[in-house]
Design brief:
By secondary structure, this protein is α+β, with helices and mostly antiparallel strands. It contains ten helices and 19 strands.
Length: 426
């Protein structure tokens, strides 16, 4: 393979301009290093491993969200966006120190039931340190046969010593939309991620609520806390479910002609009823698109703490039998033209979750903390500090407001609006 690389490099036409000549000199450098590692490294490494590592290095140096997926990882990604995959059920990222950091556990998964929390650091897997592994390698080690166990060593901010958590792997079926009534007048709708069926599940859930409680329903809480995002088209269609007109989001790539605008069509699933959207530091990407669109159009009041601040769009580019690359190709902007990259959506009303964790006063995790994150060209300032809390759905008909301060404040506000005015807030 190295011989072919060298032959291609030395067969370049002499008419190449200086820029191309410099590019191919750099490629020759890569070929020289490849050959040296291949021939002299202390252990034998396959050509495919070296090439995959080189591609991963190139993409991961761009930003935290661009990466290479081999055929297996690409298949896993496709399975996950369909809403079902095998593993522990946690969304993770890699921090600047090389440790795996939990963005959020997914609802009703082994990780969530084991008590993992947003902001936890995973330092060891079955006693082996994660330091030195890529994010893809660490994730691959966390996956495995169904019903097999794995021990995660967790370092939790605010605790003195790390501790072990044993988790049994399972099929992770994401139920992305959950709904129940808070009293007889407010619908609580939680979207935990944006997969292929999210909008359909949302429409079904709201139709059921309206059918059973239409006469008494006065408002809705849309809970996007700890929602790490997902598919752009689902974020657009969920936003469109509550907007009757106007821009939802725009995306802008490197070229001036690459701007795309997504607009709402007529129709509102809840016919203009008052809405409150809950967000926190675990709300990222697609969930920020929804919160930003509803906030900018004054369709909903956004309550909670600042969101994560991921305002970039990744395009998955298949590479045949070799897998795919996940490449950041655009930034997205809210309807007002604002980029929330590394800043987040700032709530209309700041309400921090009343938990013991808040007393630690640790800075909120955000896109701005990720190694190589894209700079916000409008404003380099990061968002304010905010506490991150975990929200769980205890099932239909069960009120959680007594144990959930942010939800309790949202319910108070909606009921206060009912008392003050019978008009629709929009």
């Amino acid at each position: 393979m190295a011989g072919l690389v060298g032959l291609a490099l030395f067969a370049l036409p002499l008419s190449l301009n200086a820029a191309n000549n410099e590019t191919y000199r750099q490629l020759k450098l890569f070929g020289d290093v490849f050959e040296r590692v291949r021939a002299d490294y202390v252990e034998e490494v396959s050509d495919s491993e070296l090439i995959e590592a080189a591609i991963n290095g190139m993409l991961s140096s761009l930003d935290p969200h661009s990466r290479y997926m081999n055929a297996k990882n690409f298949q896993d990604m496709q399975t996950q966006t369909r809403g079902e995959f095998g593993g522990l059920g946690i969304e993770v990222t890699m921090d600047d120190n090389g440790f795996v950091k939990v963005i959020t556990p997914i609802d009703d998964t082994p990780a969530q039931r084991a008590g993992l929390k947003p902001g936890d650091y995973v330092t060891h897997l079955d006693g082996e340190p994660i330091l030195g592994l890529s994010l893809a390698e660490a994730v691959d080690k966390m996956r495995g046969p169904i019903d097999s166990g794995i021990t995660l060593t967790i370092q939790r901010p605010g605790t003195e010593a790390p501790f072990d958590v044993e988790i049994i792997r399972a099929i992770i079926t994401i139920r992305s939309v959950r709904v129940h009534m808070e009293g007889d007048d407010i619908a609580y709708v939680r979207i935990s991620s944006f997969s292929e069926k999210t909008t359909l599940d949302l429409e079904t859930a709201i139709e059921k609520v309206l059918g059973q409680n239409g006469k008494t329903l006065k408002g809705m809480v849309l809970d996007l806390r700890n929602n790490p995002g997902g598919l752009l088209d689902q974020a657009v269609s969920v936003s469109d479910s509550f907007l009757i007109q106007g821009e939802i989001v725009s995306t802008r790539g490197r070229r001036p002609d690459s701007i795309q605008r997504f607009n709402a069509k007529s129709g509102d699933l809840i016919d203009g009823m008052p809405m409150i959207v809950l967000i926190n530091g675990g709300s990222a990407s697609a969930s920020e698109i929804v919160a930003g669109a509803l906030q900018d159009h004054r369709r909903a009041i956004v309550l909670g703490t600042p969101s994560f601040g991921k305002a970039s769009v990744q395009t998955v580019i298949p590479l045949g039998r070799h897998g795919a690359i996940r490449l950041t190709t655009a930034r997205y902007f809210t309807p007002s033209g604002t980029s929330i990259q590394a800043r987040g959506i700032h709530p209309d009303i700041i309400v921090e979750q009343a938990t013991i964790e808040h007393l630690n006063h640790s800075p909120r995790r955000s896109e701005a903390n990720l190694r190589g994150s894209l700079r916000n060209e409008q404003n380099d300032g990061a968002g304010e500090e905010g506490e991150v809390s975990k929200t769980e759905d205890d099932g239909a008909g069960v009120s959680r407001s007594q144990n959930d301060y942010q939800l309790a404040r949202a319910l108070d506000l909606l009921r206060g609006l009912q008392l003050l005015s019978g008009t629709v807030v929009n």
